[in-house]
Design a protein that fits this description.
Blueprint lengths: L1 H13 L5 H15 L3 E8 L2 E13 L2 E3 L6 E2 L5 H13 L24 H5 L24 H9 L15 H15 L3 H13 L5 E2 L12 E2 L7 E2 L9 H4 L1 E3 L1 H13 L5 H7 L18 E5 L2 E10 L2 E8 L4 E7 L1 E2 L3 H14 L2 H4 L5 H13 L10 H6 L2 H11 L6 E10 L2 E9 L4 E8 L5 E6 L1
Parallel strand pairs: 6-13
Antiparallel strand pairs: 1-2, 1-12, 2-3, 4-8, 5-8, 6-7, 9-10, 10-11, 11-12, 14-15, 15-16, 16-17
Helix pairs in contact: 2-11, 3-6, 3-10, 5-6, 13-15
């Protein structure tokens, strides 16, 4: 026990501090390569906001600079506020997380078999009403949260409750209806009283059906076309699943409160961050409103968010009071997560570096150059990938790669998955750019290397 504590303390002590120069260069390079209009971020170290800054433009026409006071819709990061509310209500005896849905909506499909906790954990089997990355035709027509909940609550389930994990905005819509009914108040009023006012989160506001004067303008670009102003979903289409907007500073205050148990008691965060097991004991890596995992050996509690025109990245490292918040105002894109993970790597090191493996970018570049000539070094491949790389596949690769010329390769992020070191890389040829994904075993064998 004492030895484990020493290891944790050493890990916290040896973690690097992200320098403003590094963060600025990272953000500016990422924005330049993607055309992202604006980025806003905040970094918390040891329970204190050590860096916050906004970059670019909150509006492209007219050109208005983004500032740290600019607010961004946070999409699905909103879900954790509902989860925290319902956990608090359970502690106060106002409901139970084990309450069956039938207690509140008895006519819904298999309502007696679904619990509140399963709604919050995406285990209820209720079909997601908003799985796409662009607005559907019906999302331009106002609806009520109750009507949306009723529509999807009466559909057949996609699976038996508790047997699978499947992301569902519908589950949070239904949970939001229940929370409002139990509290006798609108969700934002509940959040404001419980969290925003006590924590000084003065920028937080509700954007369901329209944006506020402090919000960045959202943009969309499909198939690498020019940015267009993102359309706004009508009332109630974001609801409990994604209706909050705020500054990066204020979301950082929330992460500090979670890690240091201000306003949200330790018992509540323990419930929110407790891994849930499915019926077959599989761990899907999700608690209540949070994704659960690790980054390079450090416990990570995280969530991403997206509504059309906006994206958000939130990652907490509770064991050393660290969090990273990144917002951006265009979709579809992975700019916020790319920047967030790069900052995490600057603090904690990359998975590949920690594993002592050769540079992923150099390895990928050499592999692509040799593959374009029909040559691969089979001694560095796993048995499975060796079998996969048949002469026919190599010939097909030569046909497609040879005309592209010599690539430039840059590593964008690293992670660990299934005992393998994973790198996502940007590959740039003279006429096109694409992603590569590289999987390696701890001893450096290539288990997969594909272009996406």
């Amino acid at each position: 026990m004492r030895q484990a504590l020493i290891v944790l303390l050493l890990a916290a002590t040896l973690a690097a501090e992200p320098t403003p120069a590094y963060v600025d260069a990272l953000v500016q390079k990422t924005m330049a390569s993607t055309g992202m209009p604006a980025v806003s971020l905040a970094i918390v170290r040891h329970g204190t906001i050590v860096y916050e800054k906004a970059y670019g433009y909150r509006s492209l026409d007219p050109k208005l600079a983004a500032t740290t006071a600019t607010t961004f819709p946070i999409g699905s990061v909103s879900k954790q506020f509902l989860a925290a509310t319902m956990v608090a209500m359970a502690r106060e005896g106002k409901l139970s997380l084990d309450d069956p849905l039938a207690k509140y909506e008895p006519s819904y499909t298999d309502a007696s078999q679904i619990t509140i906790a399963e709604l919050l954990a995406h285990e209820a089997g209720i079909r997601d009403y908003y799985p796409l990355d662009y607005p559907t035709l019906e999302s331009f027509h106002p609806i009520t949260m109750q009507a949306l909940a009723d529509r999807y609550g009466h559909l057949p389930l996609d699976f038996a409750p508790g047997t699978r994990w499947q992301y569902s905005n519908s589950g949070y819509t239904i949970a939001g209806v229940i929370a409002q009914r139990v509290a006798g108040a609108a969700l934002f009023d509940i959040y404001r009283r419980r969290f925003f006012e006590p924590l000084g989160m003065t920028s937080a506001h509700w954007i369901d059906g329209g944006f506020g004067p402090t919000d960045a303008l959202g943009y969309s670009s499909y198939y690498f076309g020019p940015y267009e102003v993102a359309p706004v979903a009508a009332a109630a289409w974001l609801n409990a699943a994604g209706s909050l907007s705020m500054t990066a500073h204020d979301l950082a205050l929330w992460t500090i409160a979670l890690m240091e148990h201000h306003v949200v008691p330790a018992a509540d965060t323990a419930t929110l961050w407790q891994p849930r097991l499915l019926a077959d004991k599989e761990n899907p890596g999700y608690g209540l409103g949070f994704s659960l995992g690790a980054f390079n050996g450090h416990r990570q509690v995280a969530h991403g968010g997206e509504v059309v025109g906006y994206q958000s990245f939130e990652a907490l490292y509770p064991d050393d009071d660290t969090s990273i918040i990144v917002f951006a105002n265009a979709t579809p894109s992975d700019v916020s997560s790319t920047i967030g993970r790069a900052i995490a790597e600057d603090i904690y090191g990359s998975a590949a570096a920690e594993a002592g493996l050769p540079d992923a970018a150099a390895l990928t570049r050499t592999w692509l150059i040799n593959l374009a000539q029909g040559q691969i070094d089979r001694s560095v491949l796993t048995a499975d990938f060796n079998a996969f790389m048949t002469p026919q596949r190599i010939a097909e690769a030569v046909t497609s790669l040879a005309p592209l010329g010599t690539p430039q390769v840059e590593n964008t992020r690293s992670a660990l998955r299934g005992g393998l070191v994973v790198n996502v890389l940007t590959v740039t040829f003279k006429t096109k750019s694409m992603r590569a994904i590289l999987y390696r075993t701890p001893d450096g064998k290539i288990a997969e290397l594909f272009l996406l």
